[in-house]
Design brief:
This protein is mostly helical. The chain is 80% helix and 0% strand. The protein has 7 helices and no strands.
Length: 186
């Protein structure tokens, strides 16, 4: 079943979250649109259109942060032994159904966590929460700027609306005056 109703804010948020995750992970937006389409019972094309026409502009800062995180992850993943996620994904393909023991899986997790700790220590202790706080602060600043712009646009709109109404009143009075002078005897 393919939906054709309007998008709501929860669906927009889901679309944004999935696309940003795909950007962070180095995946394609098309893959993100397919995933969101499946989740929301919409076509990938509809998801792509919604992203490009309405959502992407609102998430410029988050997109830049996701690209930065993708770059950081590429550097971390290029270090030897920090491929836990890839190893666990590829394990099922390589083993053709044969599973590793629980002990081996825990060993992989422990190794992965130790390597992540080393990466954090070598990167000056910069952690994701700090990056998110920076992104949140940037979004707050962007929101403040946009709120000011919106307020100015509302004021401008009211002025234009009032001027337009005055112009309509003048035209109506002139038309009424023309009718009264045309109907009165000379």
């Amino acid at each position: 079943m393919v939906r054709q109703d309007a998008w709501n804010s929860d669906e927009d948020l889901t679309l944004a979250e999935v696309v940003l995750r795909h950007i962070r992970e180095g995946s394609t937006q098309l893959a993100a649109f397919e995933e969101v389409g499946h989740k929301l019972s919409r076509t990938p094309a509809a998801c792509g259109f919604r992203w490009n026409s309405a959502i992407r502009k609102k998430y410029d800062t988050a997109i830049q942060l996701a690209k930065k995180q993708r770059k950081t992850m590429k550097v971390k993943n290029s270090e030897p032994g920090v491929r836990f996620a890839e190893a666990t994904e590829n394990r099922t393909e390589a083993d053709n159904g044969a599973s590793k023991s629980v002990v081996e899986a825990f060993d992989e997790v422990i190794t992965f966590l130790h390597e992540q700790k080393k990466c954090i220590e070598t990167n000056g202790g910069v952690s994701e929460p700090e990056e998110f706080m920076e992104a949140i602060e940037a979004l707050k600043q962007e929101n403040a700027v946009l709120s000011q712009e919106l307020a100015k646009m509302k004021d401008d709109y009211e002025l234009i609306k009032n001027d337009y109404q005055l112009m309509i009143n003048v035209v109506e009075r002139a038309a009424k005056r023309n009718r009264t002078t045309a109907s009165s005897p000379s």
